[in-house]
């Protein structure tokens, strides 16, 4: 370890389940901005799975690190693989990421290079570093995935889906308990998820690094009257459930009171169920848009009627960064530790209360401006990538020095 202009320069290994570029989801964004923060301060090596990434993606990450090694691995979520996983004690995600090639690449890397800190990727990648000894290790699962499957159980469409979610929930609880406790520290993005990990591993130090956003300029834009929007990756089950729930049970109630209301569904990979919604009056399915923030800031209200999922919802942070008023369910709001319901955004549960909250905002431009400005102010305080980077600086210093 050598001393640089700002304390010690560490040799840091980052274990990643995918190349952290392009920034199409929160997992990639979190790792990308972590690497960007570490640039120039430490010697950083990334060992990533390809997971569909390209050489061009890896080249973009290479600008921030001293070395990036990409191991080819195809993620195949086929029904036969899911069925076979039922007979394993390991969660399905962990099995998906098992790779002798990746394990060998890690052994070869550790044989030629010593590290001062290892940042281990999400729950599915913990299998590669859990048994390593002699180097401080940080596990960065972001969310508690056992919570994700517990919520999935509540809205399972049939007994088979319920049973599958129950098994994954139990396996993940066991895996979190047996695996995370063997690390020196854990980094989470939301307190609700951290409470679950703390219960499983009471002696594990837990730190927080809230995901962030680059604040767009605050300027007036022409709004599309009565336009409501939701954004997200549409093949992610919680997002798909959210859109279908809103379109089927909430939006019709809104249209009764505000017939001119429109619902914009924005995000990549909309499946047949989502695409079919475009045949309904007032519903527009856009797919991917060139600039998400520029698109959603023209809307009047952002909705996050999520019933599933875990962790913090970057979609809420993005909407508030554009000063867009947000109406969310309790599940959607669950990970927003630094926001206050009723001041920074609106929380409502159930079709009728949710619809009433949206209608009230559509009819009250002053309230829309008040919530939009208040939410943006809190995001600027706590949910920027700059704040995220500062949190990681403190975490790495604490873990590397054993404080």
Mean pLDDT: 92
What share of the residues does DSSP label as strand, in percent?
Answer: 15-25%
Amino-to-carboxy terminus distance: 17 Å
CATH architecture of the largest domain: 3-Layer(aba) Sandwich
Characterize the quaternary organization of these chains.
single chain
Strand line-up in the sheet with most strands: 5-4-3-6-7-8-9
Quickly name the level 1 CATH class of the largest domain.
Answer: Alpha Beta
Q: Which fold does the CATH topology of the largest domain refer to?
A: Rossmann fold
Question: Which of globular, elongated, flat, extended, rod-shaped describes the shape?
Answer: globular
Low-confidence stretches: 1-6
Give the % helix.
40-55%
CATH homology superfamily name of the largest domain = Glycogen Phosphorylase B
Secondary-structure content class:
alpha/beta
Domain module count: 2
Helices, by number, come to 16
Number of strands: 15
Task: Walk me through what this model shows.
By secondary structure, the chain is α/β, with parallel strands linked by helices. The chain has two domains: 2-212 and 384-401, Glycogen Phosphorylase B (Rossmann fold, 3-Layer(aba) Sandwich), CATH 3.40.50.2000; 227-382, Rossmann fold (3-Layer(aba) Sandwich). Helix content is 44%, strand content 16%. It contains 16 helices and 15 strands. The strands form three sheets. A seven-stranded parallel β-sheet has the order 5-4-3-6-7-8-9, with helices on both faces. A six-stranded parallel β-sheet has the order 12-11-10-13-14-15, sandwiched between helices. The protein has a two-stranded antiparallel sheet with strand order 1-2. Strand 4, helix 2 and strand 5 (67-71) form a beta-alpha-beta unit. The longest helix has 22 residues, at 159-180. The radius of gyration is 22 Å and the shape is globular. Mean pLDDT is 92; it is low at 1-6.
């Amino acid at each position: 370890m050598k001393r640089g202009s700002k304390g010690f320069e560490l040799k840091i290994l980052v274990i990643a389940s995918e190349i952290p570029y392009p920034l199409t989801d929160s997992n990639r964004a979190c790792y990308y901005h972590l690497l960007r923060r570490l640039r120039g301060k430490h010697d950083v090596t990334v060992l990533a799975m390809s997971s569909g990434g390209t050489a061009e993606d890896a080249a973009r990450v290479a600008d921030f690190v001293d070395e990036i090694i990409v191991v080819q691995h195809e993620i195949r979520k086929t029904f036969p693989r899911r069925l076979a996983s039922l007979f394993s004690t390991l969660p399905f995600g962990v099995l998906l990421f098992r790779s002798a090639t990746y394990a060998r690449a890690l052994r070869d890397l550790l044989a030629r290079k010593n590290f001062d800190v290892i940042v281990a990727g999400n729950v599915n990648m913990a299998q590669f570093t859990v048994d390593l000894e002699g180097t401080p290790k940080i596990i960065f699962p972001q969310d508690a995935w056992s919570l994700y499957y517990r919520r999935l159980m509540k809205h399972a469409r049939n007994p088979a889906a319920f049973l599958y979610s129950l098994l994954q929930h139990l396996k993940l609880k066991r895996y979190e308990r047996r695996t995370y406790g063997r690390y020196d520290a854990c980094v989470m993005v939301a307190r609700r998820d951290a409470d679950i990990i703390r219960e499983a591993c009471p002696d594990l130090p837990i730190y927080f690094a809230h995901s962030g956003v680059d604040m767009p300029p605050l300027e007036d834009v022409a709004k599309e009257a009565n336009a409501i929007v939701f954004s997200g990756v549409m093949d992610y089950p919680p997002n798909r459930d959210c859109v279908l729930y809103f379109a089927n049970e909430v939006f019709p109630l809104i249209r009764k009171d505000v017939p001119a209301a429109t619902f914009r569904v924005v995000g990549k990979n909309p499946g047949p169920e989502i695409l079919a919604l475009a045949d309904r009056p007032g519903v527009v399915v856009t797919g991917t848009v060139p600039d998400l923030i520029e698109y959603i800031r023209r809307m009047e209200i952002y909705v996050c009627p999520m019933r599933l999922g875990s962790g913090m919802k970057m979609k809420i942070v993005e909407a508030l960064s554009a000063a867009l008023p947000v109406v969310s369910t309790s599940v959607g709001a669950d990970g927003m530790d630094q926001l206050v319901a009723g001041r920074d955004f609106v929380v409502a549960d159930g079709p009728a209360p949710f619809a009433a909250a949206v209608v009230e905002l559509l009819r009250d431009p002053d309230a829309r401006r008040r919530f939009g400005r208040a939410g943006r102010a809190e995001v600027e305080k706590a949910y920027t990538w700059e704040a995220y980077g500062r949190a990681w600086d403190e975490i790495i210093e604490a873990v590397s020095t054993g404080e």
